[in-house]
């Protein structure tokens, strides 16, 4: 790039002051500044577009590699399932490979929870409410006054 130091910038400014004149120099400087800003934005846009296109190409390559890997996995699963189904059908057709009837199934049987579905219960357990002093029953206003009324001492 162009190596512009402070001494070179001062020399350019002095020549511009002499050539252009002090009356037109501020307007020319603003114009040059806006043009340089536009050029810089244009260069940054071009760089960003090039980076985006490079990333897009990389993503396309990555997508293709993932698709080929997925196809390979799908093919291996299909061949594995076909082999398993063949072995399964061969095993079921063989008379000596029949499982005995006394073996229990591996999954547990269903047990009814014996819950009263009509009774509404909160998620907070009762022992927690009792330990922390949380009210579990609603009191009417009169009952609350009667409960918390100071006791009379005779």
Automatic annotation (TrEMBL):
Residues 90-111 are annotated as: Disordered. Keywords: Cell inner membrane, Cell membrane, Membrane, Protein transport, Translocation, Transmembrane, Transmembrane helix, Transport. Pfam families: TatA_B_E (PF02416). It is a single-pass membrane protein. The keyword Chloroplast does not apply. It is found in: Cell membrane; Membrane. GO terms for cellular component: TAT protein transport complex. Gene3D superfamilies: 1.20.5.3310. GO terms for biological process: protein transport by the Tat complex. One of its GO terms (molecular function) is protein transmembrane transporter activity. The Tat system comprises two distinct complexes: a TatABC complex, containing multiple copies of TatA, TatB and TatC subunits, and a separate TatA complex, containing only TatA subunits. Substrates initially bind to the TatABC complex, which probably triggers association of the separate TatA complex to form the active translocon. Belongs to the TatB family. Part of the twin-arginine translocation (Tat) system that transports large folded proteins containing a characteristic twin-arginine motif in their signal peptide across membranes. Together with TatC, TatB is part of a receptor directly interacting with Tat signal peptides. TatB may form an oligomeric binding site that transiently accommodates folded Tat precursor proteins before their translocation. This is Sec-independent protein translocase protein TatB.
